[in-house]
Amino acid sequence: MKAVVSGTVTAATGALGALIGAAGITSGLDPVHLNWMIPLVGVYLNVDHLGGFFMLLTGATAIPIGIYTIGYARSQHFSRTALAALPVFVAAMLLVPAAGSITTFLLGWELMAITSLVLVATEHHREEVRAASTYYAVMTQMGFAAILVGLAMHSHGHDIISELGTPSTTVFLLLLAGFGSKADLVPLHAWLPKAHSEAPSPVSALMSATMVTLGIYGIIRFCLLGPTPSWWGLLILAVGAMSALFGVLQASVATDLKRLLAYSTLENMGLITMTLGVAILLNAHGQHNAATVAFTAAGLHLYAHAAFKSLAFMAAGSVLASTGFRDLDRLGGLARRMPMTTILFGVAALGATGLPLGVGFVSEWLLIQALIHASPDQVVIALVIPLAIGVVALATGLSVAAMVKAFGIGFLARPRSSGARTARDAPPAMAAGMTIAAVACTLLAVAPQIMGPILAAFPASGPPVDLGIQLHLPGLGGSLGPGVIATVLIVASVAAALLYGRAKAESQPLWACGVEEMTPRMQYTATSFAEPLQRVFDDVLRPDTDVEVTPAVESRYLVERVAYKARITDAIEDRLYRPIWDSVFTAARFVARMHTGSVHLYLAYGSIGVFLAILAAR
């Protein structure tokens, strides 16, 4: 019963937020002052076009996840506190883009951080969850401190968000760091793979599909709506490019399904940030049509990512609930045992690859068009644009490899564990939530014109992109018909199926190198599949590998056993954050030795402090 109430309230909260967001996009809403809620400052709500854009995204994503939670919470451990916190988390995320004052914005931001921390720590009895919760708590509070200082310097006594102008360089860097930590941008992403992996799957879906996008909202709202220097665009482009490449590299070698999806989020947030940087750079150099195409690509990809990433995490949660495993090396054979989940995860994986018929294809195509139509008149444009095209191409190729690994190793071939052999498909509530998200993916992929009125609320600097049946770029060459592509592929598939049905099929035994029957040990695992990529990017990934060869007793020339171990960690976390953590713990142990419980010693500390303060005053 608690699961039904929590899931229903979550979905209803999302539906209400989506309706308010849609109203904000189309006509705007009158500001609302709730002075009685908080003493002295109150709560000020003002849903404008940009706020409505992100409210609609957040609310629409929460609807299928709320329905999914009803079935998930019945089969997995979901505490009473977590069930109560889930709809509050959604409400807090809706409050962030609805805020009309800085105090209301900060209230919503901190409420979102606290409730998400409670949800990440749901299974706090496990050491991995406690470590992930600690990482997330530290990173989110450091980000909040940067945002607080930046907005305090930016506001100059104005508490109304709409009155804020273009920030100074110092404020811009503070806000980029604060909001970038929430958007999972390198190098402030250390919490992402831990929190997303260890949180319950509905929570992972909400955090990955909606919460991280509010970091993008903060960057746009407080940094990019006014005139911006071109080097801001260069910096944002560089941060986005590094995030995209680092995220997709880690995803391509990950064997934990949820960790793979978490790094895929890092890749996509990097692509969106990179697209915003491209738009700012082009706009600063007078290429407004290409900049508008880039802005449109960023806005469309925000919705595409929310659709396919929420679906992917829900499908991963279905696999975890049925098999008890997230390790791809222990899965396999799920296509027969969980056919519906397999199809739905395939829809999400296709969207993540950026290939035709996938929900991410149109937005990435728009980004490429903005890049190739940029005029190389200025030296900066001529140098940056080819590198940006190379980043998009490499990220797309590696994302294909990562999703082929996740789908092929995890769902096809033969099962590699008892949990995979006895798996059952998702219950109705979970299947319903995933199906809604899959329908959204399909609609956005083949009919992106439904996003036309919504994208009108996103920043632009020129004529809008014509999102009709045939996409036309304003003032630029090139067009695309996703619906036409889908129709042609469907007709070709039906024709091939009819021709195959008329042909005479003969059954022959599979040739397996002289082996009568294939076994799971003969198949590729996720580790072996990613090993060539690991070798290519060895200097970046820095894997810790170990090969142990045990010779036979009879002869040292005969091998009895070969054991191969590979451990790939986050290189940035190990080289940047690990020394900081060690220093903090060392300082904490030193301070702890000073606190012996002696009142006389504490009085001595106070006396020394007063003496030093007097010296400093003089």
Topology record:
Elements: H1 2-26, E1 32-34, E2 43-45, H2 49-75, H3 80-98, H4 102-120, H5 127-155, H6 169-182, H7 191-198, H8 201-224, H9 230-253, H10 257-284, H11 288-323, H12 334-337, H13 339-353, H14 361-372, H15 379-411, H16 418-421, H17 428-446, H18 452-455, E3 466-467, E4 471-472, E5 479-480, H19 482-502, H20 526-536, H21 538-541, E6 544-551, E7 559-567, H22 571-594, H23 599-617
Antiparallel strand pairs: 1-2, 3-4, 4-5, 6-7
Helix pairs in contact: 1-2, 1-3, 2-3, 2-8, 2-11, 2-17, 3-4, 3-8, 4-5, 4-8, 5-6, 5-7, 6-8, 7-8, 7-10, 8-10, 8-11, 9-10, 9-15, 10-11, 10-15, 11-13, 11-14, 11-17, 13-15, 13-17, 14-15
Which structural category fits the helices and strands? mainly alpha
Reading side by side through the largest sheet, how are the strands ordered? 3-4-5
Reading the helices and strands in chain order gives: HEEHHHHHHHHHHHHHHHHHEEEHHHEEHH
Number of helices: 23
What is the helix fraction of residues, given as a range? 55-70%
In terms of per-residue confidence, which ranges show pLDDT below 50 for 5 or more consecutive residues?
A: none
Distance between the termini: 67 Å
Number of strands: 7
Largest sheet: 3 strands, antiparallel
Strand residues, percent: under 5%
Radius of gyration: 26 Å
Overall shape: it is: globular
Give the averaged pLDDT, no decimals: 86
